[in-house]
Amino acid sequence: MRILGIETSCDETAAAVVEDGERVLSNIVASQYSLHAEYGGVVPEIASRAHAKRMMPILQASVDEAGLQWADIDAVAVGHQPGLIGSLLVGVAAAKALAWSLGRPLIGIDHLHAHLYAARMSAEHEDVYPALGLLVSGGHTAMYRCTGPTELERLGGTIDDAIGEAFDKVASILGLGHPGGPAIDQLAGQDGADDRAYDFPISRLDKDSLDFSYSGLKTAVLYAVRGRPRPKSDGGGFVKDHSSLTDAQRRDIAASFQRAACKAIMIKLDRAVQVARNNQFEYKSVLIGGGVSANTRLRSELLAFGKARGTPVHMPPMSLCVDNAAMIAALACQVYQDRGADDLTLTASPSTKR
Ligand code: KG4
Ligand code: ZN
Question: Which of 45, 166, 190, 245 has the fewest CB atoms found within 10 Å of its own CB?
């Protein structure tokens, strides 16, 4: 079965064709970084307009690159929740039009489920469920108990910023471009980068908490770069900015931040293992998903964790870490077998509804 997937939940317009839920025949992603760069973040209105403009060429490219004709597509899948509503609506409208005109089933997919399913795709035919799921993206940082690809029970999540958001904000504080994750990853990996040069806070929260917090870390980096803000009586504001940093300082701040950000994840993963043990929740593997799963340091710490615990840890291949439509099409194959298709009343939703 060849499924065409569509993904437009944020600022990537993506379409892909996946065969039988595992063979990626095409995977087209058009990023909008340059459109949002001057605003320092994603502007929803600009994102949805760009999706509308790019959708048709991207769909055509996904079919062409797969070496197929439209008639070869057996079903159409779309990420319909959660995300920016205007952006999701473009993808959902395109998917409905396509499914209706081709006379093919329409399958709505949850974006977060798809991110975790991308990790499942690297596990080949191994039995991974039940699993501990860890989602680390620009919009989410959460831990789940997964009894199947769409059966997720949330164990904890961020109480403020998501980890990817922290990478992006720290990159902006350091004067690096958007998205910040890859830029920090690259800087922190440079020769001579000292990840202990700055003692940034690692959030733990309550003793048993599986929640995350990244705003304190972000603020600590802000003060390390710009100094403490002046009191209001002195006019407020900061005395300096990133331009006063040396290259070595910039590198060390990136490495120290990345160390703290990753350490917070690893602490919570250790706790989740404990919680699972206390609650007799058996799990066969750990599934990692979301854009930050592309991070070099996090990947190596997760692999070391798996080795030390004797637990298989599955991460998406690099091409499926950040937002893409192949993960949507792949999961759709499973969902179609499990619960069949949706009808044309499928709606976009900014949060996870069902
Ligand atoms: O999953 P994703 O594409 O979008 C959401 O669903 O949110 O994740 C995007 C996030 C961005 O914050 C980006 O900076 C981060 O993933 N990211 C990285 C790396 N590559 C992407 N963060 C750290 N290291 C990376 N190599
Ligand atoms: Zn995503």
Answer: 45
